[in-house]
Amino acid sequence: MREQPRLARAGRAMAVATLVSRITGFARTLALVATLGLGSCLFDAYTAANTLPNSIYDLVLGGALTGVLVPLLVRHSDELYAQRLLSLVVYGLGVTVAVAMLFAPQLVDLCTSEFSAGQRQTAITLTRFFLPQILLYGVGATVAAVLSTRGRQAAPMWAPVANNLVVIATAAAYLAVGGTDRLETLTSGQTWLLGLGTSAGVAVQVLVLWVATRGTGFRMRLRADPRGVGARRIAAMAGWTLLSVAASQAALVVVNRLASAAGSGALGVHANAYTLFQLPYAVVTVSIITGVLPRLSQAATRHDLPQVTAELSQSLRLSGVVLLPTAAALVVLGPRVTTVLFAHGNADPSAAALTGSVLAAYGLALVPFCGYQIMLRGFYALQDTRTPAVISLLVAVTATAGAVVSARLVPGPRMLAGMATGYAVAYAVGFLAAAAVLRRRIGRVDGHRLLSAHGRMLVAAVAAGGVTAAVAHLAGDVAGTGWTGSLVVVLSGGSCGALLYCLAARALRIGEFRVLLGVLRPGGA
Length: 525
Known about the structure:
Layout: H1 3-37, H2 41-75, H3 79-102, H4 104-111, H5 117-130, H6 133-149, H7 155-176, H8 188-213, H9 231-260, H10 266-301, H11 305-342, H12 349-363, H13 366-381, H14 386-409, H15 415-442, H16 447-479, H17 483-507, H18 511-520
Helix pairs in contact: 1-7, 1-10, 1-11, 1-18, 2-5, 2-6, 2-9, 2-10, 2-13, 3-6, 4-5, 5-8, 6-8, 7-8, 9-10, 9-14, 10-11, 10-12, 10-13, 11-12, 11-13, 11-16, 11-17, 11-18, 12-15, 13-15, 14-15, 16-17
């Protein structure tokens, strides 16, 4: 148990930074929803355009490629190597952006279905504004990896705050110039404002990271000749990563096409539900992963497999103690939560409620998704990108099959919840497959301890979810279904459920809960 407080402390500062980032990210989402209108054709066009660069960041740079960069930078800690690696990323992604700009119409057609002519043209225009973000995200991911290996893991967590604030300001400016939620009255100037303002946010995010590097002594300098970074080794690792990305992108294309065909505004509904689903993962699991990945890489370099097992086990248990009750809350309170968050401004109240139903289904995916992501980091620390790629392919195929089956069995907007359930099954399959393979690689995954801890956490979470559902039902009968009633239900049901979970966790002697409380107390260990 001595190692748990150390890992929890390491994640605390990053969790605070990530929480602030996600709070401002919520404000950004709310500003865009209220301005462009959840359920509108304009919001769907904006979502489709913004998905292209962001999906590359999430699936390549924010996940698998970062898992490659950190181990490489741990092994080659000199500044020249990092500069050459940064140069390689810039040159490669620069070409990628140029090619993508040429094929923007085809990219939009690939990722959407049944858009009107005006909606399609708006999406293409915004896509051309947004595609340069790919290069900016690549630079940001590389610099964040440099900061991580130099003990500055929290700094990259703060950078998205600046991005969010710029986009919020853009939404405010859009309203100030008479911005509309209707495609028919959208002007070219308003389109430029949305496009430039959104990409400016990413540019400011990279600027914040550049400022953070100055305290480490690292200079962001491009090298005309990036040779010497072990390009063949990187290519071999990235080759398998490319397979993983291709599989994930194929699944995303299928899901987005099905969602955009489910009805007007359905694509934006699904995107917002997925954004909310990602919040607990980003605050809890990403903070832990960011802190543990350098130590995992160092342990793997020393061939200290017991330490690799210990780090992975701690990460899973510390994540689970927060994520299991959170998942229960999402399942029970999903539609009420999204009504409180999104039923404002130009947003359609029925679209807000539908978002909650999709979010509730995604609640089932939360724990397996986070466990799957943690397990993949074990392979990355071992410089094995082949196994995660194969497992990602399995996950993508399962998720795609689930989406297609859902679309056939439950046509219309209701199929979105079915697609989310399909993702839950896919991530569970991916987690179990990763655990089985990793067990053969490192000898053990601390299975008995993990099952014991998560079993007790599950009992506490189910009990808390039951109380939350009962209180929510009683409060809903009194307060009604509107915005105020939903707020009452969320506050009363959520508070009672959280209280019961804390009591149950103490009664069941969940050690990770005590560690968490110790870290959260002022001056805690």
